[in-house]
Amino acid sequence: MAEHPANSAAAESTSKLTKKVYEKELEKLHVELVKLQQWVVAKGLKACVVFEGRDGAGKGGCIKSITERVSPRVFRVVALPAPTEREKSQMYLQRYVEQFPAAGEIVIFDRSWYNRAGVERVMGSRPTSRSSVFCR
User: How are strands ordered across the β-sheet holding 105-112?
Assistant: First the structure.
C-alpha cells in the first residue's frame, strides 16, 4: 500500500500538500461525511463533535470545510457566547446540554480555548490548581 503524501516524514518537514492533492483528499472526506450524515439520519443516531483551540488556530476553517457539503438540518454548529448572569449560576454543563443533538442530528461545538482558560475558572467549574496547570 502506498503511503499517503501527508504521512511521510519528508512531507512533514519539507513540504505542504499541493492544492490538487488537498482538494482530492477533501473530496473523499466529503463523501464519507455524507455517508455519515445518511447513516445518522437513517438510524436516528446523535453525535457531538468538539473542536477546541485558541482563536486563530483554524477551528472555523476546519468546521467550514466539514459543513460546506452536508445538510444544515443534520449538522449544526454551536459556538456558545459568554455566559449570562443566570448561566453563571447554573452548572457549567447545563449550557451545553441544551445544545445536544436530537435523533438524526450531529452537533459541532466550536469551543474556544479561552473557555478552558477563563470561563470555566470564573464559573467555578474547575479548581484553580487545574487552571494554572492548563495555562502554563
Answer: 46-53, 105-112, 75-78
Q: How many CB atoms lie within 10 A of CB 21?
A: 14
Residues 94-112 have pLDDT tens digits of 989 999 999 999 999 998 7
Q: Which three cell numbers stand for residue 13?
A: 518537514
Contact by Cβ (8 Å): 80, 98: no
What is the maximum alpha-carbon separation in the chain? 56
Q: For 47, left (φ over 0), alpha (ψ -120 to 50), or beta?
A: beta
HSE value, Cβ hemisphere, 13 Å, CA-based, for 35 = 6
- Stated pTM of the model: 0.69
CB 46 within 8 A of CB 105: yes
* Residue appearing with cell numbers 459568554: 82
Range from 54-58, 81-85, 130-134 that averages highest in pLDDT: 81-85
Query: Using CA atoms, how far apart are residues 4 and 70, in angstroms rounded to an integer?
Result: 25
- Residue 28 is predicted with a pLDDT of 94
- Helix/strand/coil for 105: strand
